[in-house]
Amino acid sequence: MQSRIRCGLLDRSIFRVSIIIDKGNELCYIVISSAAAALDLLRLEAKLANETWCMSASTATVRSSSIDLRLGCIHGKTFKKPRRPYEKERLDAELKLVGEYGLRCKRELWRVQYALSRIRNAARELLTLDEKNPRRIFEGEALLRRMNRYGLLGEGQNKLDYVLALTVENFLERRLQTLVFKSGMAKSIHHARVLIRQRHIRVGRQVVNIPSFMVRVDSAKHIDFSLTSPFGGGRPGRVKRKNQKAAAKKAAGGDGDEDDEE
Amino acid sequence: MTSIVQSPNLEILAREPEGFSIWKGPPFNNGQPAIKLERVSCTVARFSDNGSRLMVTKNNSVISVYDGYSSNEIRSFEIPSLLGAALSPCGTYLQTFQKSTNPQDKNVVLWEIHSGASVYQHFQKNMTKATWPSIQFSSDESVACRLATNEIQFFDSKDFSKGFIYKLRLPGVAAIELSKAPGSYIAAFLPESKGIPASIQIFSSNKDAQTQPIARRSFFRCSTVTMHWNKLSSGLLVVAQSDVDKTNQSYYGESKLNYLTTDGSHEGLVSLRKEGPVHDVQWSYSGLEFAVVYGFMPAKATIFDKKGNPSLELGQGPYNTVRFNPKGRVVCLAGFGNLPGDMAFWDYKEKKLLGTTKAECSVTSEWSPDGRYFMTATTAPRLQIDNGIKIFHHDGSLYFKKMFNKLYQADWKPETPESFSDIDELVTSVNTIKIGDNEKKAQGSKSTETSKIPASIAQKPAAYRPPHAKNADSVKAELFGGIAPATEISKNALRNKKRREKQKEKKAAESGIRLF
């Protein structure tokens, strides 16, 4: 049955609305996030199999919903500095990873380590719960689905214990920079970073400018040169066009043009 | 009343130091092949692609062209300082390359065999494996083209005297591959130059549709390329090889497999699940699927459908070659060259292993055109001893073996697979596999022994469990009273346990027997 949710109550403009439905507990989580240029009113149609929803136009929610209204002030830390600053083995290991994956600074590595540690903590905490706990099932499945989707866990590894065995290298392998290099589209890992930053690479139809973009498993096939890039069939770049114009002028014109070039 | 269509006979060409001879193919009466053509001395002998003509280079710069069916000499050409020769696919034309001294001397000549006259000649400085034959034909000879510097020239294949009728300008093109059947597309490879990546572009062979490439794929890190068109000209497989491995995993360089379709549905890398070089890639004879053998040894073999999705995994093993059966149900995975020669025959429609066997030191391998026999040959410049021919049935059982003192070449005479009927034994044998699996295993004890060995090689080694992990389990058992470990034994651990117990029993039984 089709339902409509009209969200006009909030004072911020809405960019994206995600609806997560937990049928067992009859909970509906609606997460609304904002962005600078967005739509004013978003009318969503949520298709539900066997549920009936009654909405009132003025209220923007379903019962037991939680909306994240802290739009615009969500701003947390993404990395953690190491406890001991001058530990030789840690410095060597980090430098090796930075060099192997072409990272810009240690912070990029610490960012990945922090993300990994948060995921491991979540998995560890879920493992202490009872096996049949609905929260463990729901969140465990969601966590494993995300790990599978991003290619961090293989096909047969669908238990929370495998999440605890993840390493930083698994995450670093899924960055767009390493995948562009590994697929043969760049001469070296640093060349890959340059190509990405200079907008030559697209994933699917979207040009991606971010070297740390985590590539999903089903998007990994669609990494290619972008259509407007000179490598992917577009017109030549600015410098080449300028040189071609100068060469054409020199071939056609006379001595007056030579002063211009110098 | 149905008329019985006579399917053509199979023939085998075997070339030795003294010359070549043609045998009347399998099935052999009395276990020995009947000789169709007695030994004729020669240096090169090759059939045309459809088997209608046979070109023989004799050692005094004479090329003879024989008729494929009657083995009679049709025409002979006298060509001094000959370096190479090739027949066109239907056997209408013969290209020859002569050594030339000055650019005025046109040293690549195209002869028409029927009349014996030369129809076209041009100058080519030197000949490499990638650029010979200079003039490429499609399978039905409707399209003919040639790679010249910075352009591709197309000819009218009925009338070469006009010269080239149109050309496609591609600055920097290094290699081309015309699609064979039908000849409607041409793939061009432009290598990497200053900052621009190497690229493969597919164009149409029509003059009017040649402004834009139909498909293109660019990549870096590539020095040579091999291109494989499929039978319907709908897909192109490109193996891009480089001499230096920038990922520092191999001394021998790296190779990547790209797949381009002419309808634009797929333009990119084929996702291979194991790292390592691509050893072999082959299209099936129907053109709807392809098989790839890839990865560091033991290599993985997978069959992909025409969308580039994997349809069947054939496991891991010491393989580096794959050969599709022309009648299209069986595929042979083999490890020739520097590998010991294991061969596995799979039925990929039914997803069953038909048989495994070994053919040591083979150099070439080929299915017969009717798909019933598989011939492997050990030939001379590569291996100087143990030269010979072995012919196997489609399920791996040895049918015929003959050793030679020195053998240079052993080929089937090419025929179209459609002119042969389907393999009845294959259909019935697959049915018996389904019904009577156990009795077939009992009969072929040797084949099961050999099939067990590749299986055990392919099996992953059991995971390493450090000592403290074992202690943790036992500690847990003490804490929880011994309930926990009983419930949580993984499948591998259970299997290992069963196997250990069985071995213990066997040893106890043996020692018991010895006592007596």
From TrEMBL, chain A:
Keywords linked to the UniProt accession: Ribonucleoprotein, Ribosomal protein, RNA-binding, rRNA-binding
Annotated Gene Ontology cellular component terms: cytosolic small ribosomal subunit
Family annotation (SMART domains): Ribosomal_S4 (SM01390), S4 (SM00363)
A matching Pfam family: S4
Biased composition (Basic residues): 237-248
An MF annotation (GO) of this entry: structural constituent of ribosome
UniProt-annotated stretches for the region Disordered: 232-262
Keyword RNA-binding: yes
InterPro entries: Ribosomal_uS4, Ribosomal_uS4_CS, Ribosomal_uS4_euk/arc, Ribosomal_uS4_N, S4_RNA-bd, S4_RNA-bd_sf
Biological processes annotated in GO: ribosomal small subunit biogenesis; translation
UniProt domain Small ribosomal subunit protein uS4 N-terminal: residue ranges: 73-173
Role: One of the primary rRNA binding proteins, it binds directly to 16S rRNA where it nucleates assembly of the body of the 30S subunit.
Assembly and interaction partners: Binds to the translation initiation factors TIF3E1. Part of the 30S ribosomal subunit. Contacts protein S5. The interaction surface between S4 and S5 is involved in control of translational fidelity.
Family under the similarity heading: Belongs to the universal ribosomal protein uS4 family.
Family annotation (NCBIfam families): PRK04051.1, uS4_arch
Protein name per UniProt: 30S ribosomal protein S4, chloroplastic
Protein species of origin: Zingiber officinale
UniProtKB/TrEMBL annotation, chain B:
InterPro entries noted in UniProt: TIF2A (IPR011387), TIF_beta_prop-like (IPR013979), WD40/YVTN_repeat-like_dom_sf (IPR015943)
Signal peptide: none
UniProt keyword Transcription regulation present: no
A biological-process GO annotation: regulation of translation
Any matching Pfam family: eIF2A
GO MF annotations in UniProt: mRNA binding; ribosome binding; translation initiation factor activity; tRNA binding
Lineage top rank: taxon: Eukaryota
UniProtKB keywords: Initiation factor, Protein biosynthesis, Repeat, Translation regulation, WD repeat
Segments of this protein annotated with the region Disordered: 491-516
Parts forming coiled coils: none
Statement: the UniProt record of this protein carries the keyword Repeat: yes
Ranges where the Translation initiation factor beta propellor-like domain occurs: 217-410
Record's GO cellular component terms: cytosolic small ribosomal subunit
Assigned protein family: Belongs to the WD repeat EIF2A family.
Cited function: Functions in the early steps of protein synthesis of a small number of specific mRNAs. Acts by directing the binding of methionyl-tRNAi to 40S ribosomal subunits. In contrast to the eIF-2 complex, it binds methionyl-tRNAi to 40S subunits in a codon-dependent manner, whereas the eIF-2 complex binds methionyl-tRNAi to 40S subunits in a GTP-dependent manner.
PANTHER family, sorted: EUKARYOTIC TRANSLATION INITIATION FACTOR 2A
Name of the molecule in the record: Eukaryotic translation initiation factor 2A
Native organism taxonomy: Eukaryota, Viridiplantae, Streptophyta, Embryophyta, Tracheophyta
